[in-house]
Amino acid sequence: MERIVIEGGFPLKGTITIGGAKNSAVALIPASLLADDVCTLKNVPNITDRDALFDIVKWLNCDINQNGSTIKIDPSKLKNVLISEELSVKLRASYYFMGVLLGKYKHVEIYFPGGCNIGSRPIDIHLNGFKALGAKVTKRGHKYILDADELVGNTINLKFASVGATINIMFAAVYAKGTTIIKNAAKEVEIINVMDYLNNMGAKIKGAGTDTIIIEGVEKLHGAEIEVIPDRIEAGTYILIGALLGNNLKISGIIPEHNRALLNKLTEMGVSYQLGTDYIIMNKCDSFKPVDVRTEVYPGFPTDLNQPMSVLMTQADGKCTMEETIWEKRVGHYPYLIKLGANITLEDNKATIIGKTKLIGTEINATDLRAGAALILAGLIASGKTYIYDIDYILRGYENIINKLSNVGAKIKIEKI
Ligand code: EPU
Q1: Are residues 216 and 304 in the same domain?
Q2: How far is it, in rounded angstroms, from Cα 217 to Cα 333?
């Protein structure tokens, strides 16, 4: 077993370079199988969710050639076979093979996906989208079977602007006959990255980044190239760390506009920063004004930064609130922040956090990816040593996090026990 050990309180100076976005990459890798020949993905983050997807791609008889963060996927020998349950439950994004294989073959058999335990995570919006395109959906045990004689474009009004459903419906609709219009589509920037990739393959998609996406079906998609956009959640996590411990800490390779909601909140808290075209410089802020945060779909405050942000709130001068509106159970980190010394009360999905509290290192457990990131933030500011267990959650989505932090002066390491 491995654990992360952090000795807190050290200032962080130097540069942290942000990798490709996890939530883009996990859609772009499966998207490659829609093409008929070799595709190239650049700036793919080195995370274990990537490796889990590679295993699935190989299972489906496609070759992968990796050179650093550049990945070539050859889908020319793709076989539409049932992905093992073991591989499917390793991550949420295995559900993207549903849209891809349904689109390409009009038939797919697939197990229910896995992923972090942050709520019930149904996939009804995905399935309703596929049904609207003409697919018959049958559930057998943990498995879904989707079949269609043909897929025909339709107007699909999503009951919630789901990121995964928007992308998955795009995947099936690229090969549907006629026009598909997705209304109340998710507007997250990762969806624009996916649209650009599919259009590079020869798809005809407009409107990603707005709430209406229009897809004209095509008969063939060819090999193409795309660069994964920078990870705005990784960037946001390090921006928060910089506000707590930065000594001219530069976070580079970012698209500042993608972090606008976070930066606006930080300004409200009294944090100043220096923004360049693709970087931000953060310095430790000595006094944070209390704020209220409510997570929203993009461009609102991202749910994926809720947990790291709540650590900053423990250092505010007064009462902050953090309300989660996207996931029912994104609260696994709170008991551990309390164990470290934070003053937090939780009512349903709304935490009231009274600062400023001194945090003291102890043994704590990551309960999901962003909870784990939050605990790293907490450990970095706590006095003494913090030991974090169940670190696999963190490595799913934060590329080289230990090295990136050590290189700027953090006392953090992975220890085998
Ligand atoms: N929902 C449904 N039915 C569906 C789909 C979603 O009820 O068919 C509900 C969910 O239960 C949730 C809400 O809609 O309450 C939002 O779900 P969404 O589909 O937008 O999320 P997702 O696509 O499963 C992606 C990211 C998440 C991120 C959310 C929101 C991936 C693999 N995951 O999830 O990332 O929180 O969008 O932005 O792209 C993370 O990175 O830590 C993470 C959890």
Answers
A1: no
A2: 44
- CA separation (Å) from 348 to 99, 227, 322, 328, 373? 34, 39, 11, 8, 22
Q: Amino acid letter at 313?
A: M
Q: Is 159 in the pocket of ligand 1 (CB under 6 A)?
A: no
Residues 102, 15: one domain? Answer: no
| Same-domain status, 241 and 183 | no
Question: Among 227, 257, 282, where does a domain finish?
Answer: 227
CB 122 near ligand 1, within 6 Å? yes
Q: Is the pLDDT of residue 114 over 90?
A: no
Which residue has a Cα nearest atom 29 of ligand 1? 163
Whether residue 272 sits in one domain with residue 213: no
Please indicate whether residue 92, judged by its CB atom, sits closer than 6 Å to ligand 1: yes
Whether residue 247 sits in one domain with residue 105 = no
**Ligand 1 center from residue 45 Cα (angstroms):** 20
pLDDT score for 4 = 98
Using the predicted structure, report yes or no on whether residue 10 has a pLDDT greater than 90.
Answer: yes
Residue nearest to atom 13 of ligand 1 (CA): 326
CB atoms within 10 A of CB 155: 12
Is the CB–ligand 1 distance for residue 344 below 6 Å?
Answer: no
Domain tally, the chain: 2
Across 168-288, where does the E strand assignment appear? 179-183, 204-206, 212-216, 225-227, 246-252, 273-275, 279-282
Same domain for 295 and 247: yes
276 shares its domain with 353: yes
User: Ligand 1 centroid to 26 CA: how many Å?
Assistant: 13
Q: Are residue 42 and residue 116 in the same domain, yes or no?
A: yes
Asked whether residue 116 carries a pLDDT value surpassing 90, the answer given is: no
How long a stretch of residues is the chain? 417
Q: Where does a domain end: 180, 203, 227?
A: 227
Question: Atom 42, ligand 1: which residue's CA is nearest?
Answer: 304
Q: What is the CATH number of the domain that holds 57?
A: 3.65.10.10
Supply the residue whose CA is at minimum distance from atom 41 of ligand 1.
Answer: 304
Burial of 284 (0-12, 13-18, 19+ CB in 10 A): middle
285 CA to middle of ligand 1, Å?
32
pTM over 0.90: yes
Residue 94, phi then psi, degrees to nearest 5? -60, -20
User: Over 90: is that where the pLDDT of 245 sits?
Assistant: yes
Domain enclosing residue 296, as ranges: 2-19+230-416
Per-residue pLDDT of 159-191, as tens digits, reads 999 999 999 999 999 999 999 999 999 999 999
163 lines ligand 1 (CB under 6 A): yes
